[in-house]
Design goal:
heterodimer, A: 347 residues, mainly alpha, MetI-like fold, 15 helices, 0% strand, globular, B: 396 residues, 3 domains, four-stranded antiparallel β-sheet, two-stranded antiparallel ribbon, 13 helices, 67% helix
């Protein structure tokens, strides 16, 4: 009965609405049927090349199955690929622990730092009989995650400083912060990556060489920090004057006032915007493929260079899209939950 | 020893300075500025030393030299004999072109998506949500690659070309579409349209004055489009209706006539438009939701019709919320157009990186690119601040 009522109001309210519903249902049914036919019914899980899949008339998942380890781990030495696999497991565990909020914040930070140290140790090797693997071969999904997590972790403190600087009474600090934020945000990320890749070595003393991965990480960190700083500034601006004045009246100094009164409110207020920035930054990690680092997208493009699989590009890109979608969508769900949890306190 | 027995000994100088908030601020600023200047000076010294070692000349003199590379897509005539500066201009115009068309596409699609998200029809709003989530949670670069590969790998022979719109063809040779012939009557038609537009603006102004004075409404809403459209049509017919579109036609092996664009351009444009539309849609939705229900209820209580409520009460208020984030989304699209470099469309950034590779003048070329993108975005945010100041709600 309730369902009937709901359908009456939300699907068949008026002749135009009913027509729309029927048209959409028709198109949806046809689209879904075609998709299932392609992705499941006619799909090939085993095939020697894309032509054979084409003959079957469906998706060529055989390409993904054949190249899965290369797409996930790139050129990491084949025999050692249990290490990046373990790294992925560690990242998933860390994310789950964070999402489930099993630990208090301070413990969580410590767990993340230890986790990252283990990740770097595993990837690099050189201890416990693990052969050393240079950063050039840290490819695929672990690369994306290291880049994203490292960039966010290092970018966040910098963003706090920049946001506080932009809101500061001190003119020189304010000017520097504004200049940094505007310049960083005004230019496309890919331009900064090129700068980091080609121009940064020029600015270092002769003979100092930093691996490509770490150069990309530095650029990524500096770039995210500018965007996060603007988000945090929005939060700082939203805190009513009374809060600052009350903190003053209690005799708190600048640092105490910010740490105990203003920042906790400003940060929790801007959680959705922060997560949106995280998601944007996470998607932006794909741009490192343009400067020749092997993230999953570059791995797929490399695999597609194999003439046998050239036509399986849809399957390759759909697989990568699904990977990114899973991460980003989970993040946005998490942010929505946090927002709801914090909402009643804010009022 | 003083007579009162109270000796006021000044505190040690350092400690006193540290407790003076002003002095502390000055010290902090000096330290930070010194750090930044020192870092920049160190970078500069290293750069000078590195360039000297590699024997690279600095300066912008290379801009006048012959480019000696071809550019596939150019809005103004360009040949390899032209200068590097000319090549950069061609790239800049390509960036503007793809950004402008992308903005139009994203806006049209985005408003449709935003309104669909608010539809009372459950299926329609869910469908729009699926679109938004799919676009927002997958990387743009991936979408560009997908569009590009669909076009260049899966497009059929010209004989079996796809036809997404009448007279628009997609084959493995490119994308073909009709363009109007250029004729001597064009100028007169444009002039007639301009006159009609001026008349419409005048009419609207008069109608408003008259409504304010007498309370009577002129049917300006219906008259205005007629005034803009009818004169050019009349001129067109009076001139013997000579115009026809230059339609692409199938010849033996390929299409002739019309205009064509490359797959790179098409893929970039579609990806940018379709991706950004999801963000525009969310902005439009948030803008409309930001207008409180009380506003439309009050308007209905005043006896306004549904269309009037939307046009006179809701939209003007929603626009104020929509425009600032919309502009920054347009700016994002423009910056994202630099991903052209991944598929080889010659926009400003990919032309610039070609030049940097060819000449080795990386610092100079990058500085030009940074300056161009930065001035675009600073100009936009300046305009936005002005707009905000003009339209911001004035509260007590």
């Amino acid at each position: 009965m309730a369902l009937w009522h709901w359908a009456r109001s939300r699907l068949f309210g008026g002749p135009l609405n009913s027509l729309l519903t029927i048209a959409v249902l028709f198109l949806l049914a046809r689209g879904l049927a075609a998709f299932v036919d392609w992705a499941v019914v006619r799909a090939s899980l085993t095939a020697a090349n894309a032509r054979q899949c084409e003959a079957a008339g469906g998706a060529c998942w055989a390409f993904i199955i054949d190249w899965l380890r290369f797409i996930l781990f790139g050129r990491y030495p084949y025999a050692e690929q249990w290490r990046p696999a373990l790294v992925l497991a560690i990242f998933v565990a860390l994310l789950l622990v964070s999402f489930a909020r099993l630990l208090p914040a301070r413990m969580l930070a410590a767990v993340w730092i230890i986790g990252l140290a283990v990740v770097l140790l595993l990837m690099h090797g050189g201890v416990f009989g693990m052969p050393v693997v240079e950063t050039e071969f840290w490819n695929g999904l672990p690369l994306t995650l290291i880049l994203a997590v490292g960039g966010l972790g290092a970018g966040f403190p910098l963003a706090l400083l920049l946001a506080l600087g932009r809101r500061s009474q001190l003119p020189a600090l304010r000017a520097l912060s504004v200049a940094y934020i505007e310049v960083a945000r005004g230019v496309p990320f890919i331009a900064w990556l090129f700068l980091g890749l080609i121009v940064l070595p020029l600015f270092l003393p002769p003979g100092v060489v930093i691996a490509k991965l770490w150069r990309a990480e530095v650029v990524f960190t500096l770039f995210i920090a500018a965007y996060l700083a603007e988000v945090v500034r929005g939060g700082l601006q939203a805190i009513p004057r009374g809060q600052y004045e009350a903190a003053d009246a209690l005799g708190l100094g600048y640092l105490q006032r910010m740490r105990l009164v203003v920042l906790p409110q400003a940060l929790s207020l801007t959680i959705p915007a922060q997560v949106n920035t995280f998601i944007g930054a996470f998607k932006d990690t794909t741009l490192i493929s343009i400067i020749g680092l092997f993230d999953p997208l570059q791995d797929v493009n490399t695999a597609l260079n194999d003439p046998a699989w050239r036509l399986a590009y849809v399957e390759g890109y759909v697989f990568i899209a699904a990977l990114y979608f899973a991460f980003c969508y989970l993040m946005s769900l998490y942010s929505r939950r946090l927002e709801r949890r914090l909402a009643p306190a804010r009022r | 020893m003083s007579k009162t027995g109270v000796s006021v000994r000044p505190a040690p100088r350092r400690a006193r300075l540290w407790h003076d908030e002003r002095a502390r601020g000055v010290i902090l600023q000096l330290a930070v500025v010194a750090l930044v200047v020192g870092l920049l000076a160190w970078f500069a010294a290293n750069a000078v030393e590195n360039l000297r070692r590699e024997g690279i000349a600095t300066g912008y003199g290379f801009l006048g030299r012959e480019a000696s590379f071809a550019i596939g897509v150019a809005l103004i005539p360009f040949s390899p004999a032209n200068s590097y500066a000319h090549a950069l201009l061609v790239g800049f115009l390509n960036t503007l072109l793809v950004a402008a068309l992308g903005i139009v596409l994203a806006t049209v699609l985005g408003f449709i998506v935003g309104i669909a998200r608010l539809s009372s029809n459950w299926l329609v709003s869910r469908l729009a949500l699926v679109y938004v989530e799919a676009m927002r949670n997958t990387p743009l670069l991936l979408q560009i690659f997908l569009w590009w590969d669909v076009l260049r790998l899966s497009a059929p022979q010209p004989r079996a070309a796809w036809q997404p719109l009448p007279h628009v063809f997609i084959s493995n040779r490119g994308v073909y579409f009709p363009v109007p012939f250029y004729g001597p009557l064009d100028l007169w038609i444009l002039l007639a349209a301009a006159l009609g537009l001026a008349a419409a603006v005048l009419l609207r102004h008069r109608a408003r004055r008259r409504q304010e004075l007498t309370g009577k409404r002129l049917p300006a809403l219906w008259l205005a489009p007629a005034l803009v459209l009818l004169p050019p049509i009349a001129v067109f017919l009076a001139g013997g209706a000579p115009h026809l579109l230059d339609l692409p036609r199938m010849t033996r092996f390929d299409f002739a006539g019309g205009e064509s664009v490359t797959f790179e351009f098409t893929a970039l444009l579609l990806a940018l438009g379709v991706y950004t539309a999801a963000f525009v849609g969310e902005i439009v939705r948030a803008g409309i939701l930001a207008v409180s229900r009380g506003q439309s209820e009050a308007a209905e209580a005043l006896g306004l019709r549904r269309g009037q409520v939307l046009r006179l009460v809701v939209l003007p208020q929603a626009i104020r919320v929509i425009v600032p984030p919309l502009t920054s989304e347009y700016l994002n699209l423009t910056k994202n157009s630099s991903l052209a470099v991944a598929i080889g469309f010659p926009d400003l950034f990919s032309v610039g990186s070609t030049i940097a590779n060819q000449t080795g003048q990386v610092v100079e070329v990058m500085s030009i690119l940074v300056a161009v993108y930065l001035s675009l975005s600073l100009a936009t945010s300046l305009a936005m601040n002005l707009y905000n100041r003009r339209t911001a709600l004035v509260e007590r």
